[in-house]
Amino acid sequence: MYTTTTCTYVTEEILLHETILYIIWCLGLTARIADIFSPRYPYVLPDASFGELRRIVREQRVRMLPVVADEKKMKLLGIIRRGALLLVTSTRVEITAKDLVEEPSVVFLPSEDVTTAARNMLRADEWYAPVIDDEERYIGVLGLDDVIRYALDNYREKLQKPVSGIMETKVVYVEPDTPIYKVWQMMLSRRLAALPVIKSGKIIGVVAEHDLIMHGFTRPYLESPSGHRRGPTVGEVMSTPAVTVEPDVPIAEVASLMVERDIGRIYVTDENGILQGVVDRSDVVAAWLRELGLKPL
């Protein structure tokens, strides 16, 4: 059974936040998840093959796949993360969705409000969460991109501060000649889904989990000494060009680029293309919540 709320002790800070949420709700300034979630988000059955999972992730560019028991009852069994496909130690035919499924950190009902859901997703460090009905049937997914789209449509005026105020300046990066196995190790150890590619201080591309899956890499190859010797390097698999903005660009413009291009992070550079920082979807959502008077985390 999935629990959609978390019990905790009451503090003055929690009471203040709940009061703000109540006022926002009473004024009609927030929506319910039912108003913004994605009901057509793909899902898989327990017997979906490893190859089928990789195909869906490649073609539909999703970070997470819900797993349902069957297409009649649609009971949610759990999720498969995109990164889990790179952790598989074998590509044998018998590996299926049920072997990779895990319990989601957060699950929502369509009646829950968007601001509370957004805060819970940031606290759990999740960009996507399944949405179920009262009988635990899967009905769709709420993504931070849905929240950003909602914020742009209804609160664009609150996202006019420069992006420099919310960007992360300590950016982990790789170079074009960095071997792919090292990229994979960095992604695992630092829990990163993408890394900028830097040459002479300038960003020339991005290498992401999706790029590794697109090129068919699996764990045995990434951990094989012979694979290390053969390559390839980042320069051979990275996506180009990287989407960048300058530090004085409003947060709203960055948020619009994320929605329009369906990308999770945007890099900030100076006028010469030198990397200054990075902003991802969670940064934008956190900035929006702060403008509403809510503490994101």
TrEMBL record:
Entry-linked Gene3D superfamilies: CBS-domain
CDD domains listed in its UniProt record: CBS_pair_SF
Keywords: CBS domain
Domain CBS: 37-95, 101-159, 167-224, 238-294
Pfam families named among the record's database cross-references: CBS
Protein name: CBS domain protein
Organism of origin: Pyrodictium delaneyi
